[in-house]
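thought: fold this chain, then report.
action: predict
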Amino acid sequence: MALENEISCALARQEPKVALMAATESVQVIEPGKLYDSMRARSLITHAKCLAAMGDVAEVESRLAASWDLLQGPGACRNLPGPIFALANWWEVKSQVLEQRGEIEDAREALVLLC
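observation:
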């Protein structure tokens, strides 16, 4: 949680490099195993958000794909607040990437999926 706060504050201060360093650490410290898949997915989404702030669209797509697999995989809880919040963040980052690519209509559609 401390790293999540550090990332959030760094992004709010327009310091994407600081946020990316904390997000990278956040992904690395999560233990392997199904028990931590939801946490890992949220951390990958946050990492993708930081990469998007840096303009690294290719890596954003990689992190989003990995987190999507964790959020939609077998045994994933989709009706709890944590996974719902993670999916909302996923679509928000996806929208940002589409906007950076100039795919404005698709970015708008991604945001509509949040609702």
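thought: worth noting. The chain has a mean pLDDT of 90.
final: tokens above.
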